[in-house]
Amino acid sequence: MRISIKFLESVLLGLIASVGYGQQVIDNVGIGLNGPHYGVRQNISSFTGWNGGWARGFHIGEDSDPNNPILMSFGAYGDVRATGAPTLIYGYIGKDWTKTFMTFSPNGNVGVGTNGPNERLHLGKGNFRMDDGDMHVFNYSNRMVGYNDRKNYYIGAYPVTGSSGLDLHWYGGIKFGTRVGDVMQIAENGNVGIGTVSPSSKLHLSGNFMDVNSNGILAMESPDVYTSLYLGISNNRNSSYPSFIQSRSRLNSVPANLLINPKGGNVGIGTETPAEKMEVNGGYLRITNSGNEGPALTLSNPGKTAAGSIWRMYNMTGPYGNSLQFWNYPSDFSTGDSRFVLHDNGDMNVNGNITLSKDLYASDIVSGGSNSWIFHTPDDGRNTLHIAPRVNNNWEWGKALIVKADGNTAVQGKLEAKEIKVTTTPTADFVFAEDYKLPKLSEVEKHLKEKRHLPEIASAKVMEQEGVNVGEFQIKLLQKIEELTLYVIEQQKQLEIQNKRIQELEKKNRK
């Protein structure tokens, strides 16, 4: 075995340095011992009985530099008491035992930057850097521990079938960042924030969210409730729901109710400022159901208790007929009544009275039932209203009541009434005027003999041909009655005169 002069020089320098501890310069140093596995061995058995610390090692230095005589030292530092044997506190690599770079405890712990390593590798100060190679964790009990707390601050692994998972625990939270700053925070209470370092819920996203997977689904579940919510997209271009929101039961995966703004607020589709509970701006609102009752829109008023607390509008078919129908129900749906039917061909049925505050425009109005009548206004230039009955599915226009625009009315048949009031002017009171010339009875007699009807009264033939104006006819009859009254009064006067003369003649005859 060859030993260079420089190596021997280093050994000698180390031995000389030990003089400062009150020991001999040479303490049983063996080179080329019979036990070659020792290499170089320094015997410290002579420290027994010594009271204080000790240090021994190899020193590499340069005597010409008084400020830094030792460049590197490899050795050990320990303690000894007067009544005991020497003990090792740590081995070291450094300038000396007080200026260590790395220390080695008797329990196998290694310290870098610390003289008292508490773990297998303990970095006291400074940074840790790897330019190449790997750091290996070979079992699930190995951890990188923080704050000397293996329970709450560590990076480790947990078992996974055929592999392992990353087990990351940090009691106060975990923060992730990039060159733009903090981008993700796992808070102490378990909330996760993306784009925010103060998440207020289990998942708090600040900024945009995008899922570019073939079927991107965002699922939200809670261990305390039995429903889950799914938001996602479908990769099927022919799918009827390329984007969807679905609530379902976690017990049996059947669809569950989905609430939107259950505590208030409006919902807008196609608008950012909805003014109602739901506002759709642009396009159409579509409800589809292929059954006989078809799709329905329900309007409920809990303040009502009888029929009508719930109204439904149906687009019906089948036994209901092709029609739009309005039905009302009590709150328990125990009964239901059709109130309004608008057929696909435009016909309309109303189950109830109609009250109008404005005009109703219609070409014809037909009453229903077996006794059916029609109110008809022809479009051939006539300004007339025809009211006719239906007989054998035909309208009997020959029996119609006709009302003309000028007020004239034609009745094809008898007119029966408890009272008829005819108003016209003037009346026949002119007969009682002083200047009225009452026809002489002789003239009336002559007219009757010649005309066979009263003066100023139309003949029967004329009445048959032209009809009778009831108002004028009534006035003429009144005129004749008043004239007759005057004749009777005049006859009464003549009778009274004649009676007086008779009485006078009777007196004379008695004498």
In brief, what are we looking at here?
By secondary structure, this protein is of the alpha+beta class. Helices cover 14% and strands 32% of the residues.
Write the topology of this structure.
Layout: H1 5-17, E1 29-31, E2 40-42, E3 52-61, E4 70-80, E5 87-96, E6 99-104, E7 110-112, E8 121-123, E9 144-145, E10 153-160, E11 163-170, E12 173-178, E13 181-187, E14 192-194, E15 203-205, E16 217-221, E17 227-233, E18 243-249, E19 267-269, E20 278-280, E21 296-300, E22 310-316, E23 323-329, E24 337-343, E25 348-350, E26 364-366, E27 373-376, E28 384-391, E29 394-395, E30 401-404, E31 409-411, H2 441-451, H3 460-466, H4 470-510
Parallel strand pairs: 7-8, 14-15, 19-20
Antiparallel strand pairs: 1-2, 3-4, 4-5, 5-6, 6-7, 9-10, 10-11, 12-13, 13-14, 16-17, 17-18, 21-22, 22-23, 23-24, 24-25, 26-27, 27-28, 28-29, 28-30, 30-31
What does this structure look like?
The chain has 4 helices and 31 strands. It has 511 residues and is of the alpha+beta class. A hairpin with a 5-residue loop joins strand 6 (99-104) and strand 7 (110-112). The protein is rod-shaped, with a radius of gyration of 62 Å. The N and C termini lie far apart (216 Å). Strands 3-4-5-6-7-8 form a 6-stranded mixed β-sheet.
End-to-end C-alpha gap: 216 Å
Name the beta content range.
25-35%
Strand order of the largest sheet: 3-4-5-6-7-8
- The average pLDDT is 82
| Multimeric organization | single chain
**Helical proportion, percent range:** 10-25%
pLDDT < 50 stretches:
1-29
* Radius of gyration from the alpha-carbon trace, in angstroms: 62 Å
Give the overall shape, derived from the CA principal axes. Answer: rod-shaped
Number of strands: 31
Largest sheet: 6 strands, mixed
Q: How many DSSP helices?
A: 4
Structural class: alpha+beta
